[in-house]
# Entry
Amino acid sequence: MTLPFLVDCLGWTLLHFIWQGALVGSITALLLAALRNAGPMVRYNVACAGLLACVMWPAAELTLRLQGADMVTAQMRFADALFTGAGGSADGLSAFLQGQMLWIVGLWASCAAVLALRMGLGLLWIERSRAGHGTDARLQATVTRLAGGFGVSRKVLLRVVPELSSPQTAGWFRPVVLVPASLATGMPPDLLEALLAHEMAHIRRHDYIVNLMQHAVEIIFFYQPAVWWLSRRIRAEREQIADDLAARHTGSPRTLARALSELERFQFSSHHLAVGADGGELLARVKRLVRPDAQALNWTAVLPALGLAAACLGLYAHASTPQLANPQLAVLDQMPVALFDSCAKPQYPAADLAAGHTGTTRLGFEVDVHGKVVASRVNRTSGHAGLDAAAHRAIAKCSFIPGRAGGKPVQAWMEMQYVWTLN
# Structure
């Protein structure tokens, strides 16, 4: 397995995720709109499933590409429709992207590395806060008591951090609650305990691990807005779940609502690698705790998602239709015959030649009553868009004796195979 082959497989997988992510995000948005009055746990699971689909779909495609499997699927036909010019011509975006694949993958890797470094610095800040700041005996006793009430068997530490503006929870095996010094000294004990109960709910649910996984997905697919939107929805629903658990434990939703209102006086923390009480829409959470109401359907948000999902599914369904299903094919008296004098040998694309790309492109193409190729479709890709594009160009130059049915010329589909080898 050569490096150019790996770059090619990874690059096309990343590009295809542009439409894959849009489709997954649109469908998830419609489901969440339909479930707007369901419990936050239901919406949380739906959003998590959407984000998981954003991981599994490109992962499956990359695996198939690396294995050299037959990519004759509705997905690949749909991708052809997006990355190939109109009328089956491949002289457009597809060939251009193939020539720039090394730069595309290089740019993606560079941006992902920067985001990964940022995540690493955030984790380092958390560890330094754990080791470099003191505790408060009274608050540590409260945290220990809350841990027992929530059924958390691990020891939970508390650290008072001067530069923080909201309580945060970090760590799984050794969880720690980071409390701003201003809150530790300035907030009434009952309100601060309500916020600490919220943090303990995060620890009880192992939300820190899920949050780290979200960051990893955001790093890999940073260019896809649907991934960021899904992550925001997951975090918002997660905060509501923690609110419910904390309110149930304290027995007073209004106390937690008052505590959350107090947080508005502080600047929101920028250390998002931890999970904390300032996540989600704070005012909406306060209103929900004090006076939960049924949510009306927001059509301005639903209609764009509905339109995008319908467009993607419609194109996908069209692409999945077998391209050789021509009812005239079974009654042909004579298949189209190629006039080989008109067919030139396809030119090996320079970029693919330099990269050492090989493979087999199997084309389905339609010959009209005048013997001209009017449409063509990749039935089996070579694994390289440049080679497939060259096959499209070659077949378009061929002329044929048209097929005949009942003694008359008819339009008919044929198939031809191009084998790309390096001498």
In short: DSSP finds 15 helices and eleven strands in the chain. Residues 3-109+296-320 form one domain. Confidence is low (pLDDT under 50) at residues 70-74, 85-91, 267-271, 319-330. The radius of gyration is 29 Å.
